[in-house]
Specification:
heterodimer; A: mainly alpha; about 0% strand; B: alpha/beta; five-stranded parallel sheet; 16 strands; about 45% helix; globular
């Protein structure tokens, strides 16, 4: 690993870009929930997993206080 | 069907968001850049714009400014990837209805949008309604803004309206002097709207929140690459206001260097963006506001005298609310009507005690404070009448030392200010004191964030549940 420190601004941009993608994920899941009329248990499980993982990723992005 | 414009350069987000909102009964258009967004706005009227803060060709702040100047009736919600409270507060101050931070959660978006649209509807409706002024004897011209700074029949507000009418059609620079919350910006807007510049932009700038470093580029703009961090070309406020009016709030806070640069610009009527050699001709009327005596600031060497004289072609004094006698009640009634619409309540009157409290209280926060108090009281009142129970302690417990204030006839003559000494209930009870301090802080923060409880809790550094409990305990809803 390089020893170069990551500068705050690029980190901020990275967070921003990841949050953008998370938005797509949440919105896409919402559409899926709507479009799939009779989801099987597995489909529900998958949707919930994607959703909770996306939320966890967002938690990981929280800036240290 | 309510029309929403989405401006986001992230195509997936725009598509999915538009699908989601269409499903929820909105008529949605989406634009992938700031410019194309503005094109759509030119073609049709939207109820609400959802705008991403970071766009390729511009940013949310610029978009907000443009939309608010050109289409003041369109609500704006900014979507941002940075959870930055300061920025959020600033955006809301600039006129954004709210901001949503990413990632976007569909329920949250829908909630915010619904609220924004309801609020906007309430505001539009209340603007259509006749204000109490029309019931007065003199058929005064209706002022366009809903905040009604010039509403009133007291001598001082009539004088104010007359001065505004007088100076508006000229090109004079104006200094507006008045306490915070007394409606200086509204007065400036009135001047602008009654001038021949009314169809041109009105740009308001809060000099109190400007850092030294940013001030120059905010005023004059800069060219791309003119200094580290200048990634894009920025148009300054002078240029933005060209043809119209530039309003500088809290002008006493500007640094001495910026004052020198301002003076040059005002004298030469030309502006140069930082890093550019091209001079742009300016035709801008300047209105400044201050809540401190600039004469004192000049004496202390904090404000340039030459600049002061440039600005001081005409000066207007905004009377504090406590000196406006019965206007307080007219304004309170006006705000109550607006609150009823916005909050779907049916509170129709103030009890006699409340009227008395209103007339006695000192109103340090002026019209803004009155508006907030009435709004809050309308929300928590149970019957059709607002009683002292719905007023914050500082108002219902406010006591005038002698009995002269209790003559509730002749409201037009407000009791003399000098005689009003603030005497609170002599409760030297630590618990009370702590509660009151807590109440003050909570209310202040809530106002700052436009009553968004999640954000208020963040700022107060307590969790949302605690905030709810506290609010319940102190009778705030």
């Amino acid at each position: 690993m390089s020893n170069e420190p990551v500068d705050a601004e690029s980190l901020r941009m990275l967070r921003h870009d990841i949050r953008n993608q998370l938005s797509s994920i949440h919105l896409a899941l919402e559409t899926l929930r709507y479009e799939v009329a009779d989801p099987t248990e597995d489909i529900n499980y998958c949707i919930e997993t994607i959703s909770s993982s996306a939320k966890k990723i967002n938690e990981l992005l929280k800036e240290p206080e | 069907m309510k029309k929403i414009l989405i401006i986001d350069d992230e195509v997936n987000v725009a598509v999915l968001l538009s699908k989601f909102l269409t499903r929820n009964g909105f008529d949605v258009t989406s634009a992938s850049s700031g410019n194309s967004g503005l094109e759509y706005l030119k073609e049709q009227e939207f109820d609400l714009v959802l705008c991403d803060y970071r766009l390729e060709d511009t940013d949310g702040r610029e978009m907000l400014r443009k939309i608010k100047t050109q289409y003041p009736n369109t609500g704006v919600i900014i979507i941002t990837g940075y959870s930055d409270i300061k920025m959020a507060v600033e955006l809301i101050k600039m006129g954004a209805y709210d901001y949503i931070s990413k990632p976007l959660y569909p329920d949250e978006i829908l909630n915010t949008i619904t609220k924004a649209i309801e609020t906007r509807q309430a505001l539009l409706d209340s603007a259509d309604e006749p204000t109490p002024v029309s019931s007065g004897k003199s058929a005064k011209k209706q002022t366009p803004q809903a905040d009604g700074v010039v509403i009133g029949t007291s001598r001082s507000s009539k004088e104010l309206a007359r001065q505004i009418e007088l100076v508006a059609p000229t090109n004079y620079s104006v200094i507006i002097l008045g306490e915070s919350g007394s409606g200086k910006e509204e007065a400036a807007k009135s001047i602008h709207l009654q001038s021949h510049r009314a169809s041109q932009p009105f740009i308001a700038m809060d000099c109190g929140s400007l850092t030294k470093e940013l001030a120059a580029s905010e005023f004059f703009g800069h060219e791309k690459g003119s200094f580290t961090g200048a990634f894009t070309t920025k148009i300054g406020h002078f240029e933005m206001a060209n043809g119209g009016t530039l309003f500088l709030d809290e002008v006493g806070n500007l640094s001495y260097e910026i004052q020198a640069a301002l003076l040059r610009t005002v004298q030469e009527r030309k502006v140069k963006r930082i890093g550019s050699t091209k001079e742009i001709d300016l035709d801008v009327r300047i209105i400044v506001a201050t809540n401190e005596n600039l004469g004192d600031a000049i004496g202390k060497g904090k404000f340039r005298e030459d600049l002061y004289h440039r600005f001081n072609e005409f000066s207007i004094y905004m009377p504090p609310l406590r000196e406006r006698g019965n206007d307080i009640i007219l304004l309170a009634e006006h705000f109550l009507r607006a609150a009823n619409q916005e909050l779907e309540r049916n509170v129709t009157q103030f009890s006699e005690e409340v009227v008395e409290c209103f007339l006695n209280y000192r109103w340090p926060g002026n019209v803004r404070e009155l508006k907030n108090i009435v709004r809050r009281a309308a929300l928590i009142s149970e019957g059709s009448e607002i009683t002292t129970k719905s007023l914050p302690l500082e108002i219902s417990n406010y006591k005038i030392p002698f009995d002269f204030g209790h003559q509730t006839n002749g409201y037009n003559q407000a009791p003399q200010t000098e005689q009003r000494v603030e005497v609170k209930e002599p409760k030297h009870d630590l618990k009370n004191a702590a509660l009151e301090a807590e109440y003050e802080t909570i209310l202040r923060v809530l106002r700052e964030v436009n009553f968004n409880k999640t954000r208020a809790a963040e700022i107060l550094n307590i969790d949302r549940k605690t905030l709810y409990n506290k609010m319940k305990a102190i009778n705030l809803k």
